[in-house]
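Justification of resources, computational component.

The compute hours requested in this renewal are based largely on the per-chain cost of generating structure records like the one below. Each record pairs the submitted sequence with a full structure-token output. That output is archived, and it is also reused by downstream analysis tasks.
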Amino acid sequence: MIAYLRVGYIARPHGLQGAVKLDPLTDDVGRFKGLTEGYLELHGQYTPVQLCVLSRRPDAVVVKLTGIDTVDQAQTLRGGYICVDRAHAAPLPEYTYFIADLIGLNVLDTNGKSYGKITDVLSTGANDVYVVDGGKLMVPALKKVIHSVDLPGGTITFHAQVLEEVGFFAD
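The structure output for this chain reads:
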């Protein structure tokens, strides 16, 4: 299980004092309210950071990281991520999961047939779509399709009959 969850992608510097614009990687930008600590993920390394949220919009969050005081310093963070550890992750409603926890799950149907692993989750607006083995199978994330999710066991099971109706098979 991944220890850190990405909540924002550092898109670019913002202003002249070292602030950065984040593209939110969460369904609710309200989760940034009161966020004062996190982790900077940059080049595969996680560094604890103190931060101050300067503004929030549905499509962007502007934050100031302690110790980053110039545009040049902020520029070095471009392409990084602001993360939180699991203890500070936003609580999820029942039957919802972090995308990071779904990636890598073995995909089965209720008849026991194996389809591979979830390799990506696409956010389409209406509902997410699970991508299995790089696109060999695409499945809408609908309650009627999902039979069970077993994170500790590393599997997601779909109702076989419904999967045949709504799944997109590449072959």
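The radius of gyration is 19 Å. The longest strand covers residues 45-57.
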